[in-house]
Amino acid sequence: MKTSVVNSAAKKSASAAFPVEGVGLGLRRALMGPLSAAPSVPIDFLEVAPENWIPMGGSLGKQFRAFSERFPMVTHGLSLSLGGPSALDMTLVKSIKQFLQEHKVRCYTEHLSYCSDHGQLYDLMPIPFTEEAVHYVAARIRTVQDVLEQRIGIEHVSYYAAPQQEMAEIDFINAVLEEADCGLLLDVNNAYVNGINHGYDPYDFIAALPAERIMYVHVAGHYDEAEDLKVDTHGSDVIDPVWGLLEFAYEKFGALPTLLERDFNIPPLPQLFAETGQIVQRQVHAGRVAGQRAGRQYD
Q1: Which helix (H) or strand (E) holds 217?
Q2: What pairs with residue 64 in β-bridges?
Q3: DSSP string, 74-118
Q4: Per CATH, is 8-293 categorized as 3.20.20.150?
């Protein structure tokens, strides 16, 4: 299995502060066989949900280690329930810490949501946008960071109801980032979906995020339930308006490391790599624009 390197222009525009650079792909078990057999893999880093791989051994463990030894890896948690009413699952946090160390994972991110209440809810529920919730979730993030001994990133989630919304979503997210002193996983599809579902401009939302806290970016497809209702599914191709929003993020923040999420309806590798190739093209363009503005020349 061979790792590809993205165009140097995009690499030159990346900041050393990012845990990874280039183009990433969410590693799903259905992809392990095709990726292992592929003569080349035009991907720079992989992302996994640690809960799906802890514990792990036998032939699956060997397969996974083959990937973690060849690709830089990041993790995106599913079940820590940072905003939930129940106590944090410290056993899980400690298992994640061991997983990060064992596989030399570059960073750990989680959803700014909750998914448990004396039991797993199996969905990402919206946290009320209140000052009390800011203090509550920020304290829990700091606890996780203390145990992991590293800064984590939080992802602003897609949501379909806004209970007890006393402040705007962007103000809530920025307040949590500041009080927790944590990083941000920017999801441009979530910004697009939420913008339509809740009636705000996703461009304004992205422009108001703190550049210095962005770790990397997610891009994905969604389902059109109705003209004014989009559902974040990660089960279809990225649409043009979301690509446009990603380009805007690059214009605002530079050619950020970007990962394609695809959870089901996974197409054959050529089609999947065509989408990651679109990310490369946009990163290269952003790098060239940044270089021209700075008076540099790229090959």
Answers
A1: strand 214-219
A2: none
A3: EEE-SS--TT-SSPP-HHHHHHHHHHHHHTT-S-EEEESSEEESS
A4: yes
